[in-house]
Give the backbone structure.
Amino acid sequence: MRAGPSQEDIRRHNLGALLRHVHLGGPISRAELTSRMGLNRSTIMALTSDLTAAGLVREELPRETGRAGRPSLVVRPESARVYVFAFDVGPDRLAAARVGLGGLILDRREAVRERGAFELAELTAVLAGFARQMRRKAAADAVCVGAAAAVSGGVRKDDGVVRFGPNLKAEEVPFGEELARRLGLGLPVSVGNDANLGALAEHSRGVGAAVRDLVYLHGDVGIGGGIISGGHLIGGHEGYGGEVGHMVVNPGGRACGCGSHGCLEAEVGERALLESAGRYGGHQGRDSVRAVVEAADRGDIVAQEALKRVGDWLGLGVANLVNIFNPEMVIFGGMLRDIYLGAAAQVRSRLALHAMAPQRERLRLRTSSLGDAATLVGAAELAFANVLSDPLEVLARAHA
Amino acid sequence: MTPLLELRGIDKSFGPVQVLHDVGLSAYAGEVTALVGDNGAGKSTLVKCVGGIYPVDAGQLLFDGREVHVHSPRDAGELGIEIVYQDLALCDNLDIVQNMFLGRERKNGLLLDEDSMEELAERTLSELSVRTVKSIRQQVSSLSGGQRQTVAIAKAVLWNSKVVILDEPTAALGVAQTAQVLELVRRLADTGLAVVLISHNMNDVFAVSDRIAALYLGRMAAQVRTADVTHAQVVELITSGRSGDLGLKNGVTP
């Protein structure tokens, strides 16, 4: 039998917990940390001085307290000094960001990706190039403590291999390994499904902060999803969980890129909308989706019908998810923000018809508050995971 | 849960024409209540009664559970009820800060306290996550329709208001600006305000509301939770005053 946690384990855990408070909640006074973490003042003082010595946080006098007595020091994340690289590979764009501790996006690069074959070498070269440019602009004493990428596809959690990504035309691609090699930072690159990471982002910094049970739906070319239950992302046995886009809502319906028929993605995705609106074959991408919503708003009957149809299927899919997971909030991100706002009457009518009363009563439907940055912010959170679980060790390695 | 704003049995006539018959309405903190109805159903009249522009002939207004009397827009403002009318009532020749504090300027001795007004305006806009406005010293005439709506809403929120009533805030806006205003409406409620949204657009209503109150020919046909009804039911309530078990019975509120 394993012995209980050692003193060192407890200290490491507390350091991580304190850093997480500062990272997610922003500047916070020592007094506040004492009450939130339920530790005594001298412990908090010892922990913050360790983190300060390591250069992860700094302590300052608050500007004004408006109260009598000696003010409690405010602990701030060292956003400019401690950072991670976050990457996002979507069907239409490649994005990279340098994100400081505390979640501050310090620098950002983006390129358009042509839809076509998944060229691993070319793609990782572009992303690594972005990282190099951003690194040159960082302060001399800044340290990179992690890197992670969001990819539109199914990713094996153990090794960052993209197993399937029909909308990227990727199959069995060792993406994490190759990007880490190109970056040459001596750091592994964690890889996650973009919608899973979007869920994580909205849960930690977006509209779903403080919500422990949520479903995030991400619309791009396809439909992805991330489910957070009891505060934890449902990744499944090997990390492929949350593929709500491939939930079958219409057996015998439209063909899906995954090889099946009538998946939510096949009925709600970009192609379904454009085809029903009689616009398939022309422009693609987010703007083409917006164009349909705009045409519907102007009174174009074909576009209105297409949007209604897609809203109906979306509502059916959401009703199923609501029945199964009983989330407090469902968040529509990516192009689903536009679809939801343009077809909310259909979506919620379906919910009223198909979701069970106890599950739907207190359900809140929201649009993403991070918008296009959601997947990138989620990747940054994944990249910070190591330093938050063992702050001193990760920093020591980064300096070595 | 006690409604933050509750109307009971409101009657209102203009001369021989009775516009509102025994109307009740409840709005709750943290929720968006959509007020829907055809043209002439009495939505705007009802709102003007709440805002102290029209006196009511009969009925009660309860604020946070206790009865209050509103005889003027100033009374409404003092209770924490702000109304954003369709015409927005912004002054084109003034900048954003001047508009937000119009008639209620902060003074520092004899002078206007520009610094504190600017700071408060800035903070209000950022708390509402409004990022579309470049400078708060911009003249209102240079703003787009969506930005003007945003300023009008921020102006209403600035005064520690508890109830915000919005009359057709998306009526003249394009899709992108409508989306931003809807998200703003939702955020207002999520910060704890009671929001009443008057709208003709069923998508807007379903996108952000928690409850729907449908007026039909001056009577409240039904107040329902948005989660419990379909688009078709709400359209029926608006056009005929009833839908299945919901709505008026023999033309009167059951």
